[in-house]
Design brief:
The protein is mostly helical. It contains seven helices and no strands.
Length: about 130
């Protein structure tokens, strides 16, 4: 499990590496990062809509987003069959899992951004 302290420590390390870059590489870094980092607030808002899995798509985690969406849609579909309890169980299960993630949304988004920054620094040859 990610700890906020660990994520913050890594972010500071990356910022230090960024400060050491020459001006032209630092400019390039920011140009690349602008398109690839996510906004923690946007991630949190999308996470409030956990039934759709949009927050996973926002981070580029397509498989997880599709699984989230499929489980929810499957649960809703089962509500209208002879197994509504199973459908309700699936919906509750995905709700519990995503509710936990909602409370950790900021740390998850910051960790994602750290990984993006690491990757960009590696692409620039400084990671």
């Amino acid at each position: 499990m990610l700890s906020r302290d660990e994520v913050n420590r890594r972010e500071e390390e990356l910022r230090q590496q960024l400060r050491e870059l020459p001006d032209d590489q630092r400019k390039r870094f920011y140009e690349m990062a602008e398109r690839r980092v996510c906004d923690p607030d946007t991630y949190a808002v999308l996470n409030y809509l956990f039934i759709s899995g949009l927050h996973h798509f926002y981070l580029g985690k397509w498989a997880r987003g599709l699984i989230n969406l499929a489980v929810f849609v499957g649960g809703v579909a089962l509500l209208f069959t002879e197994m509504p309890q199973l459908g309700l169980g699936l919906i509750l299960a995905i709700t519990v899992v995503e509710l936990y993630a909602l409370f950790r949304a900021e740390v998850i988004a910051l960790d994602h951004n750290n990984r993006v920054m690491e990757k960009i620094l590696n692409e620039l040859g400084r990671g």
